[in-house]
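User: For my dataset I need records formatted as: sequence, then structure tokens, nothing else. Please produce one.
Assistant:
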Amino acid sequence: MKFKGWDKTTIITDDGTCREGIAPLIVSASRATDIPAFHSSWLMERIRRGYVRWTNPFNQVPQYVSFVQTRVFVFWSKNPAPLLHRLAELDERGLNYYFQFTVNDYEAEALEPHVPALNKRIATFRELAARIGRERVIWRFDPLILAKDLTVDRLVEKVKRVGDQLADATGKLVISFADVREYAKVRHQLARGNVSWRDFTAAEIEDLAARIAELSQQWGLPVATCAEALDLGRYGITPNRCIDDELMIRLFAHDRALMEFLFTGPQRTGQKALFPSPPTAGTIAKPAGRLHQLKDPGQRQACGCIVSKDIGQYNTCGHLCRYCYANTSAAVVKKNLENLDVRGDCITGPGNHEKT
């Protein structure tokens, strides 16, 4: 049985209007923008109010997303520092969460012009891991990209430099290889930044994978690839699930509603619950054969993620990374950031600028 969409619900909006919406159990925050870095105040306000309005970037049709059934937030960030002091509220609300935390080392190349200094990002990473546990903070070196003076040797040096400082504070390293040719927006961004990129050859991918695998052995840290069709299993590098049901089962086995969804899909009226009482951590054996197919149909074929609802919007991330597919231009991002409204039900919209 394939996943057929989240349960429908009725949402009472801030102005008192009734809207039909969806009620996802898993929320991605977000592939489209860095919500922890730039929109954490907005997010917490929306959690308190119980819903968000998401606008489809392709047809501009709004969708209302209720948090009434939400059990997990998966955060994607290069700087979650503004969210750290708000985690206690998430804990108090009984919400589960973990982080996909990208820590690259592209300072010399200015590929990530507005992220904090590397030493500050490493300090934030370690602080977060100490607070919530290393398995809930996934380190991403993403993407790996070749450019002038940015060779395979140089990339290995960079991965090692960061990994030597983070390997004991994370449960996994996730890598990907930049797919510049596939995204016109990325090519334009790199051209604007005068970045002379080039594709990886097959031999370079093999070389880089083998050397990162050696580092992983030294660190005792598993390595996985994000949305890559290549088979690097001979190096011990496996395909990743960033929205990861197996990780959720390990981390959040106490959450009955989440476990029922992961094993059987959304519970319908009259359907017998899989767990008559909440399971305890370490007691769940995965059944032979998944009863419910949870692969996210909205992602690329090589993506292993299970279904989630992403609530981010393009053109709202102020990091302005040169290789980013989610921003059209710095001017568009600047305008959107100037019009942020922490009280609005959508990230994009008129209002006051959120200071982070």
